[in-house]
Every structure is written in C-alpha cells, then in structure tokens.
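Support request from a user on the community tier.

User writes: "When I paste my structure tokens into the form, the page sometimes reloads and wipes my input. The last time it worked, I copied everything first. Here is what I submitted, just in case something in the input itself triggers the reload:"
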C-alpha cells in the first residue's frame, strides 16, 4: 500500500526510525503531523489519518457506512463513498501528540451497538497506529443511524 503525503511517498512506514516530531499548525487548525527522520521530513496530513480511520471503520462487521460529520445537521443522511470517507471522520491532535478520532457511522439493525462500536474502536486504533506510528489516545464512535439490511 502506498500513501502520498505531499512530501514523501511512503512504502513501508515500519522501516523508518523516527527521531523527533514537530507539529504543523496554521491559524490554530491542525494541518498534519511532521515526523523528522535522518532522510527528511514526513508530513502525515489530517486527511490521511481520517481516511485510514474511515477505511478501518468500513472493515468492521455491522457497519453500513460512514456519514458526513454534518450530514444530519444538514438533513442529509447519505453514506459516503470510499473516496470521501475522511468527511465522516474528525481528527484532533492533543498537546501530548496523541490523536483523538471521532467517527460518524450508520450501523446495521440486529447487531448490538456496543459490540460494533468496540470493534470500530479497536480496529481504528490499531490501523492508524500501525500505519502512522502515532499514538491514538481515544476513538469516539457516533452512531448517526441504524438501517435494516435485507
């Protein structure tokens, strides 16, 4: 799997040794996370982290789809496609360089919500930490709907 970050093309994140971290801020909004290595700077954008979290969410049994963070506020309940999963995920970087991730989902009727939510939390945490080498402190799951699957 290849991740394009804007500065570096990463093929295998595990082979890089991370020496120091630098936070990229612009106007108070988190733009991404810079990782400084002996070979250069790796910039992992907020959208890359959100896409990883969205894909990890979609892998879980009982998830019908990811919805936009503003979908139900706007009155739109449409499920997002794979190319726009980041719109249904919010990523925040805490002062201690840990991530807080919020995922907005629609779940399938008939499977206990806590079971699906715990599966989402574990999978998102594992996938994001594995692919970015950043610590995920918390994953919040917001269930925005339940759908009957035929």
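"...and here is what came back when it finally went through:"
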């Amino acid at each position: 799997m290849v991740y394009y970050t804007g500065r570096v093309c990463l093929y295998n994140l595990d082979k890089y040794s991370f020496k120091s971290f630098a936070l990229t801020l612009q106007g108070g909004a988190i733009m991404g996370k810079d990782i400084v290595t002996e070979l250069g700077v790796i910039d992992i954008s907020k959208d890359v982290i959100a896409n990883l979290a969205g894909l990890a969410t979609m892998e879980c049994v009982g998830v019908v789809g990811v919805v936009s963070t503003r979908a139900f506020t706007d009155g739109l309940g449409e499920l997002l496609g794979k190319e726009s999963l980041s719109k249904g995920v919010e990523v925040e970087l805490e002062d201690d360089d840990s991530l807080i991730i919020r995922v907005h989902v629609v779940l399938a009727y008939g499977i206990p919500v806590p079971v699906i939510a715990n599966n989402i939390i574990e999978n998102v945490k594992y996938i994001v930490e594995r692919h970015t080498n950043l610590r995920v402190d918390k994953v919040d799951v917001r269930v925005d709907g339940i759908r009957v699957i035929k």
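Agent notes: The reload is a front-end session timeout and is unrelated to the input. The longest strand covers residues 136-147. The two ends are 33 Å apart (CA to CA). Escalated to web team.
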